[in-house]
Amino acid sequence: MKVEKIVLNEAREVSLTAYLLDTGGEFRNICKRPAVLILPGGGYQFCSEREADPVAMPYLKAGYQAFILRYSVGKHSVWPNPLQDYEQAMEMIRKRAEEWKVFSDKVAVIGFSAGGHLAAAAATMSENRPNAAILGYPVTGSDVKGCCATAPDTIPSVDKNTCPCFIFATRTDEIVPVMNSIRFMEALVQADISFESHIYSYGPHGFSTCDTSVQSRDTTISSRVPNWVADSIGWLKEIFGDFGNGEMTKPVCKAHATDNDGEFLSVDCTFGYVMGNPEGRKVVEGFLGGAGNQERPGGQEASQMTPEMMSMVSGMKLRQILEYAHMPKEVIEQVNGQLSMIPNQR
Amino acid sequence: MKVEKIVLNEAREVSLTAYLLDTGGEFRNICKRPAVLILPGGGYQFCSEREADPVAMPYLKAGYQAFILRYSVGKHSVWPNPLQDYEQAMEMIRKRAEEWKVFSDKVAVIGFSAGGHLAAAAATMSENRPNAAILGYPVTGSDVKGCCATAPDTIPSVDKNTCPCFIFATRTDEIVPVMNSIRFMEALVQADISFESHIYSYGPHGFSTCDTSVQSRDTTISSRVPNWVADSIGWLKEIFGDFGNGEMTKPVCKAHATDNDGEFLSVDCTFGYVMGNPEGRKVVEGFLGGAGNQERPGGQEASQMTPEMMSMVSGMKLRQILEYAHMPKEVIEQVNGQLSMIPNQR
Amino acid sequence: MKVEKIVLNEAREVSLTAYLLDTGGEFRNICKRPAVLILPGGGYQFCSEREADPVAMPYLKAGYQAFILRYSVGKHSVWPNPLQDYEQAMEMIRKRAEEWKVFSDKVAVIGFSAGGHLAAAAATMSENRPNAAILGYPVTGSDVKGCCATAPDTIPSVDKNTCPCFIFATRTDEIVPVMNSIRFMEALVQADISFESHIYSYGPHGFSTCDTSVQSRDTTISSRVPNWVADSIGWLKEIFGDFGNGEMTKPVCKAHATDNDGEFLSVDCTFGYVMGNPEGRKVVEGFLGGAGNQERPGGQEASQMTPEMMSMVSGMKLRQILEYAHMPKEVIEQVNGQLSMIPNQR
Amino acid sequence: MKVEKIVLNEAREVSLTAYLLDTGGEFRNICKRPAVLILPGGGYQFCSEREADPVAMPYLKAGYQAFILRYSVGKHSVWPNPLQDYEQAMEMIRKRAEEWKVFSDKVAVIGFSAGGHLAAAAATMSENRPNAAILGYPVTGSDVKGCCATAPDTIPSVDKNTCPCFIFATRTDEIVPVMNSIRFMEALVQADISFESHIYSYGPHGFSTCDTSVQSRDTTISSRVPNWVADSIGWLKEIFGDFGNGEMTKPVCKAHATDNDGEFLSVDCTFGYVMGNPEGRKVVEGFLGGAGNQERPGGQEASQMTPEMMSMVSGMKLRQILEYAHMPKEVIEQVNGQLSMIPNQR
Q1: Residue A320 and residue B221: Cα distance in Å, rounded?
Q2: Sign (positive or negative) of CA dihedral A307, A312, A315, A316
Q3: C16 class by beta-carbon count within 10 Å (0-12 exposed, 13-18 middle, 19+ buried)
Q4: Whether residue A199 is found in the same domain as residue A293
Q5: Predicted ipTM?
Q6: Chain D interface disruption, residue of B27, B301, B326, most D CBs within 10 A
Q7: Interface test with chain B among A320, A321, A326, A331, by most B beta carbons within 10 Å
Q8: CATH number of the domain within which B37 lies
Q9: pLDDT per position as a tens digit, C311-345
Q10: C245 contacts on A by Cβ (under 8 Å)
């Protein structure tokens, strides 16, 4: 592993530390790697070491390149300095992607607390958008004024272009109330953005990875908290794909909850949306016939279907309806193949 | 294990099935057991077998008595029939607690989908309140009209008397949109109720335990989903306490996020709240002295504290401030002992 | 779930309890289920309830039918009474497989301590062999005389017909020394039998599932111990296959470590064995060409291969050599298809 | 994190790479750290990069300092060169313990394949013994001649001074037959050494951490294999103790299975051994009274105790007998305190 430390802004004491794993040679399947850009917390007053190196390690173990950005804090934290630091870091990571062996379209940002605010800002208002964002007990709304008076509320900026997010926090966090996470989830739902979230029943603010080397083992904290680390890696593999032969495998989780706003139709459009498209309807009926009326969500008998249930079905993804109908994966792929040639008249 | 099936209402085909584990004898530490009351889903049109027995097993493994309520559905589902069925079941469980070896103050309700609506109704509007509620991809808001026109929205009924909740769902559930879970969380926060939630990135509605014997292994669903089962058991152990010598150990997670509304003060009141009480302030200063100014949330130096940070500190639980100050658990218990004799002037 | 209790032998107080999960209906993919037959421990003096019901639950959760055999103990324990009880139970399970919805070729036996001795006897000397055996801190060698003077040492009976085994114990078990498990593993290796084993660093005898409802939470025991339950289920899925559409999927782990003694050749024969067969050699060379010389076990360069390494390669399974050569799974299946038509001249 | 690379022997191309985590500052509880010394595999022909950096990461995450020794291989591998390289590395780590912030009595060696042979040699025949050894699919017996003709069989050297070991391998490893692990376990039992082992049902040789970035996700390998990493860290915490306030907590797992050969008596001597010592007997009877006759191993009734069972009891650790008698942990500590003042007449 090579380590590089680059001063991005001497006056503001901004630096980017790169932990770069080897590629090629015995890692014969790996020409490039996905990456994480870590934004430690510290109330925009400092960058916590507890949320820097310890966070990098599990992603390095999983095969990701890891970068730590120590952004403008304290008297330098006036907005948009921290966001500019992020832009500079992400731009450099992508510009040097060949040299650093990074898949430039698979770079996730990970931020904690105030760093979670910065990560959310990167996900919603930056020019160099991350491809995924992991937000640890993040500050997202107006509470940010509490640690950086000039920093913006990120929630109004959530839109269709926001990347998929992984959010975790504890219910009893008194430094950053859990509503910061819940409100952000709501905004993601409104914008049809894919996300995962884990709100653990109790624990203090700032637990980082919750390893005993970082957070005292005497801490009163839920036993599930440390799971966020492995869960976030499992989630990244679904968003970015996993290591395959030379390239990454196809992602299994899309950036949007549905494909209704895609360029072409797909089995991840809702049933109602596809049936509303004459060509789409033809494809579906070719495979399902009347099956559309025989769905058993949760195992229910068609005969018991209420109009409300029917309306639910029309809100379901075609993929799930085909799965309920026990179509083999190959057939579902055929359906998808045919739909993917039908332009989506939005 | 004994199995009992009791018909609660022949006309409405309502029944309670009890799976009763042995106590005493070789289970010498166990005179009674905590219990779960399972409410299967099925859109109030039927009670899904996929969310009945398979759900009982993991809790039986953990040592819980398990009950399955098959409540009024279809033409019998007109409200408040299902809630009355619940009342009858919970009343019977507590009335027969001695015979069935159940801790009558440790009975959790577990509901899925429409059964999750019923569980939420039990938690918010029943006479025989459960002591905890596990809500699986629950219907909570006005969407319930879609499967039972007469069923009420449970969210407005969330209040201080609502029990702790464990909520899980998938982001992409199209039958019960994830907002049903998020809105309920919000209501719990407003009422200061303890909860845990896991929103998994993707997967269909109605996955139950997600074992391959219940949900097809070909299902497009997040790899984290099956974790809800073990996580909910870990959570119950924190809410109810764990099996000890003859009785259950003391719970480590309280029903409310803070103790500010308790009868007496405690280390789980917020720092500001305790300091606002003259006697409470004396106790704290006796232990902390000026330490109150030395907190390092997220490791920050006191010198860097902004007024906003100070206001955060006053919102923190005293317990966590004492932990940040590295007070040993015993000392924290001493502080708690002294505070617990000070009446809370609300 | 239906529960049946059948008295197998009134005089000896032998009974079989059946926990039978539903099939069909909403469990539409399930016409039959694999099963476990549980043999509790108790030094052949009694049948421990701690190793009966609590053990059944996790397998029921996983979708298995569960049977508990309370066999001849105390004054009735004189050999071969317990083994006869087993034969009677297993015979009945298979005879009533249609009625009880059991895959009669997917019945595992699970025994603990003295019950582990009986399970090992079933796996090595019974007429009605189980299809897999899970042995919990088993008595396997001459130590059995300590609890049943007439019971035989099972180790000399391990042979090619012994079923795959999953063995677990703690290093510090003073009631049944860990050598009982280690010696049995050795015998399985000698007979080329597939197995998995977990020896945990410390803990007492008789911990069963190690749930706090069965084993006191104050017990001095390794934190890994409870993992045996989920690990044994994961293992069974590899030995029996998993729930698929109507039938079980193909097993991924075979009963023998290699196929060298199979009826036909396969990619699970060793490289040297296949190359020793003229037709087999042709098939391999057709796909590998000279690749046989380019293996890189552990990533090593061919040029660095010593004769000893070459001899290792000939001891490797063809499947792994093909994987090292990065052949796609489909191609490996082609190779296997061609080999599987070549009779094995033993 | 600082990275240092030190050339230990230029002629033999031997180097030590140190990954050194920060201490103090925000890691206020950490003045020093335990450490791991990693010995990659490669048949003594090379040092595999797949078993170097990827292995360091999880231990760094857990808070351990990590060192990688690239020892003498190929033409330089003639024994005792590799062992001398180890001695030099371990000596340096302990000599620079203050500078590198390492607890010099908490340094574990981790070796894979041939590196596992070297780790076993370190554990059994070195001058600078490690405090624990993690052996991954290790070569331990005469098979080592296959990759290094001059290297010794380590099994005959296992004795009372061998450190605790954690061993893992796959049953179907054809490059290093599983008997290499089993024979080593046997030797550890003979010498009363503490160990943990996991033999996974199937998988190839050389899987390292089994992350998809190191071992192809298409590999035919048991789903439990990746667990060895977290399990080995959990084990190290029990052997070394966990991070506490400034120092490590007391280990919960001892280096020997019993204390019968200790300097003083303890509750970890066997019951029979303590009762054989007049003073020891007095202490025990003071607490247990006749309780010694009322033990219920596996829950059995005293009345049913056979002489053989009684002899088992005498082979049990006193600690477990006290636990069976449901003595609270504090009382057990009292018994231990009194025994620990009684010299052990060996």
Answers
A1: 10
A2: negative
A3: buried
A4: no
A5: 0.89
A6: B326
A7: A320
A8: 3.40.50.1820
A9: 667 878 898 888 878 888 899 999 999 999 999 98
A10: 326
